[in-house]
């Protein structure tokens, strides 16, 4: 029996070897099982690959998270040595952090094209050099710093030559000459630098000279566009300032500033030159010695939206077609305007204002003894702070002059009725109405004595006498003649 089993088992082993089976013991007997070397090999290789991948990720994560205090060159009396070495040698997408504490530093140079995050806790004091952080990096950079201070004269906290999509969170800045300076092509020649799509957040910025400045260099073609600033209090000589570079052809444009408080400013809070299409929203102005807002004549299409009223003497608006969305008051606090649109073109042809589908309000009329004291006023434009008429402003209802020897027109009247038995009636037409095509209507059923229309300089424009008869007239200013001219519409004395 045993011999028979031995012979059978030998034959099974030979068969299994030839045809690719494995032999397993099942009780007293042997069984054949198909062997799949591919499955077993794949299982083994997958297990090894996963382990290697996990190990690489762990090693990689440890390499990308860098504690500055663990660097062999770390010195709390000058952390820039360790930081600059880490920044220049670390791999892309590294996370560099500094534990909370009090540190001193020279300049930290972020002048490499690597995506990285730098998170520095505690207080960092600049002890020498002209800037604490200098940036030239056109990849994704995030800089998060708690508190920065210095007593170094002529210093800048954050100086940016070039950055795109940078994210800068500078909580507290104190003692520097300038807080944030965007200065593309300040030193670079032959290459156009820009600062674009960056975000800046701060809580407090107390700098000797000013808070935020745009100042391009004097070579190549630099730009500063489409950045966002969110504040934050600013104290110093100015809040926000833009200065044009000598070779700059692209204006500072589409930058946005939100929720910034300008306090204790010895100069101007917002001081703009060569700035177009920028947005300023919800600012607060307190103890500002100069202008709240100043625009040079090179500015255009900027927009200022505030939730406070601002006195007219705190605005120096020389830009073109900028929009001021807040109440404007006199020095004594009387409201002068709800909004302002600037225009320094100096002529009405260049200024385009569209009032589309507007329900214009009704208010009290001006004039002596008005029997229907309502008017419909379309719009008024201020040019260099003066009330200049560029589009119609008129009363739609009837206004009356009753025995008033001198009457100064307030509007371009739809129907001005002259009722008087005085020897002479003088009606003064404001000089602001002397633009080509300005027109008004008047009527009278009494003109035995003359009705004389003059401008504010006492120059007669035309008159109505007894020979003209009664009726209704239209008067229109003709620029080529330099005066108003009249023509009779009807012999009826009626509202036009």
Describe this structure in words.
The chain is mostly beta strands and 496 residues long. Among the domains are: 57 residues, no CATH class; 170 residues; 115 residues, no CATH class. 11% of the residues lie in helices and 43% in strands. It contains three helices and 47 strands. The strands form nine sheets. It has a 16-stranded mixed sheet that branches. Strands 6, 8, 10, 12, 13, 15, 16, 19, 23, 27 and 30 form an eleven-stranded parallel sheet that branches. A hairpin with a 2-residue loop joins strand 1 and strand 2. The longest helix has 28 residues. About 9% of the residues have low confidence.
In short:
It contains three helices and 47 strands.
Tell me the strand percentage band. 35-45%
Which parts are unreliable, with pLDDT below 50 for 5 consecutive residues or more?
Answer: 347-352, 354-385, 388-392
Distance between the ends: 137 Å
Strand tally: 47
Radius of gyration: 40 Å
Q: How many H/I helices?
A: 3
Largest β-sheet summary: 16 strands, mixed
Q: What class do helices, strands and sheet pairing give? A: mainly beta
Helix content: 10-25%
The dominant shape is: elongated
Average pLDDT value? 83
């Amino acid at each position: 029996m045993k011999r028979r089993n031995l012979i059978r088992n030998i034959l099974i082993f030979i068969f299994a070897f030839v045809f690719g089976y494995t032999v397993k013991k099942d009780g007293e007997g042997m069984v054949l099982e198909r062997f799949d070397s591919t499955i077993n090999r794949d299982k083994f290789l997958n297990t090894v690959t996963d382990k290697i991948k996990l190990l690489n990720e762990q090693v990689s994560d440890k390499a990308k998270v860098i504690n500055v205090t663990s660097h062999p060159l770390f010195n709390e009396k000058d952390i820039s040595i360790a930081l600059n070495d880490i920044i220049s040698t670390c791999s892309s997408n590294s996370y560099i952090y500094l534990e909370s504490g009090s540190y001193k530093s020279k300049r930290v140079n972020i002048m490499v094209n690597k995506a990285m995050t730098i998170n520095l806790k505690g207080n960092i004091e600049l002890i020498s050099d002209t800037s604490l952080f200098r940036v030239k990096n056109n990849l994704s950079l995030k800089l998060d710093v708690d508190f920065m201070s210095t007593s170094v004269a002529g210093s800048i906290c954050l100086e940016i030559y070039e950055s795109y999509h940078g994210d800068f969170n500078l909580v507290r800045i104190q003692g520097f000459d300038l807080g944030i300076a965007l200065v593309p092509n300040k030193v670079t020649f032959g290459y156009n630098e820009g600062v674009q799509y960056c975000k800046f957040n701060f809580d407090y910025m107390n700098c000797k000279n000013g808070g935020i400045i745009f100042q391009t260099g004097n070579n190549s073609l630099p730009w500063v566009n489409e950045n966002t600033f969110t504040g934050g209090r600013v104290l110093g000589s100015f809040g926000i300032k833009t200065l044009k570079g000598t070779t700059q052809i692209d204006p500072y444009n589409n930058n946005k500033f939100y929720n910034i408080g300008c306090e204790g400013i010895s100069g101007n809070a917002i001081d703009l030159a060569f700035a177009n299409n920028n947005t300023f929203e919800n600012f607060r102005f307190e103890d500002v010695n100069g202008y709240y807002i100043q625009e040079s004549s090179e500015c255009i299409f900027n927009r200022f939206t505030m939730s406070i009223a601002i006195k007219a003497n705190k605005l120096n608006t020389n830009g073109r077609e900028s929009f001021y969305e807040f109440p404007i008051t006199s020095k004594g606090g009387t409201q002068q305007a709800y909004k302002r649109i600037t225009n320094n073109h100096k002529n009405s042809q260049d200024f385009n204002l569209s009032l589309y589908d507007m329900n214009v309000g009704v208010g009290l009329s001006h004039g002596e003894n008005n029997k229907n004291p309502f008017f419909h006023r379309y719009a008024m434009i201020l040019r260099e702070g003066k009330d200049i008429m560029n589009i119609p402003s008129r009363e739609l209802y009837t206004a009356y002059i009753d025995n008033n020897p001198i009457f100064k027109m307030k509007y371009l009247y739809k129907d001005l009725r002259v009722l008087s038995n005085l020897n002479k009636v003088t009606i003064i037409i404001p000089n602001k109405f002397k633009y080509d095509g300005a027109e008004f209507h008047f009527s009278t059923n009494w003109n035995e004595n003359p009705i004389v229309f003059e401008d504010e300089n006492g120059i007669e424009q035309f008159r109505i006498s007894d020979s003209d008869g009664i009726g209704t007239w239209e008067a229109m200013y003709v620029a080529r003649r330099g005066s108003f001219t009249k023509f009779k519409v009807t012999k009826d004395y009626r509202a036009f």
